[in-house]
UniProtKB/TrEMBL annotation:
Residues 18-63 form the Mur ligase N-terminal catalytic domain. It comes from the Bacteria. The lineage of its organism: Bacteria, Thermotogati, Thermotogota, Thermotogae, Kosmotogales. It comes from Mesotoga prima MesG1.Ag.4.2. This is UDP-N-acetylmuramoyl-tripeptide--D-alanyl-D-alanine ligase. GO terms for cellular component: cytoplasm.
Amino acid sequence: MISKSSVEEFLLQTEDRNIVIDSRKVSAGDVFIGLKGEKVDGNDFVGEALSKGASLVFSDKAFDDQRVLRVDDTNEILIEAAKSILSKSKLSNRIGITGSNGKTTTKEISSFFLSKLGRVFKTAGNLNTEIGLPLSLLENRRELFSAQYGVFEFGTSTKGDIEKLVGIVQPDIAVLLNVGSAHVGNFKDIDELLQEKLSIFKSKRLSRAVLGGCDERLREFSKGLPVEVLLFGKEDVDFSIVDFAYDKGDTMLHFFCDGDRFVRLRGIWSYGQLLDLGAAYLVARLVGVEEPSVFLNDYKLPFSDRFTVSILKGITVISDFYNSSLESWESAILSIEKLRSSRKIAVAGSILEQGREEKRTHERLGELLSKFDETVLFTRDMAINAASKNVKPALVSDSEEEIAAWLHRNVRSGDLVFFKASRAIALEGVYKSFMELIESA
């Protein structure tokens, strides 16, 4: 058990300091924390951190060096320090967001809406783990202390992760976007993954909840929540998407929430991102933004790796490298069907972390790929080959250059090319090679 005095000392020593947990990234003056991971123990790299200029180190192990402060458990002190910081904040609302897809998008839009009421603290980037979230709080504590609203992203890769994050933040508004097949390979089955996501509602401070109404499991669960509940989705929900279309590079959205609303959104938003907007809209309404949509005319999604649309020499190119799941493919296809093109071509790589569902997942992906006029499979990871059961690919290759060259020869003005795979597949290399060939032609 970490003592209160140890936590206070830790907070004092790390205030206004750059905190690093990877010894390879240490610069002069940084504070290095040796954390125990599943594969690597950061305490084994204390010497390297000191040699690179770390001015202070926290470690589980004892070292004969005044710059190294020993604590009983570096992982635990990080969590307890984050709790302490939050207890000293003046946040009137803490919003926790989780789901298989769309967490960061919902966090960004929610933060934008809430900024119309007051200062907002949001966890940086996708720092949504029991290490990333506390680090975000520690390194940005001044911003947190001046904020009225806090928006926190909760991720999970193994059972119990979300409950740990809930224990740190204790959100009063909990948002569960969806429960899909992403990371299912890390769980016993889909039901265990569902229960993991539902654990966001175990917060002791919970007073309101927002859930994705497209999932009957979430609808049923919401009926038993003893708090105010709002649903978003397609039908019979508090925020419903009636229709959407694309016009001159913008997105036209018709939704219903206490009446019909019509907004023009800057840029091309996918169907999944529009659902995320629905969740953020309901969060804003719960907190007190009377009509969030009036602020959307000037808002642009701050991403370049999620359903990003470019038009080059008459060719529509869409890159989507942030993550991949069957659900995100379905959402993307629904969006692509609304974009005008002569032919639609998919360049697909594997969906990772599927475990025993790997073969079935990629066979189902093959069914989805059959909606395209042509399909190319990037076999950097071989699991994607199972898609061939339900679609006949025009090319199967693990070579970035070969696929880029095939696309350059076969794609013509008026076509649409969609690139998507899990992040670790590094499909970006194929995309960049193809774009360079188009630009140089």
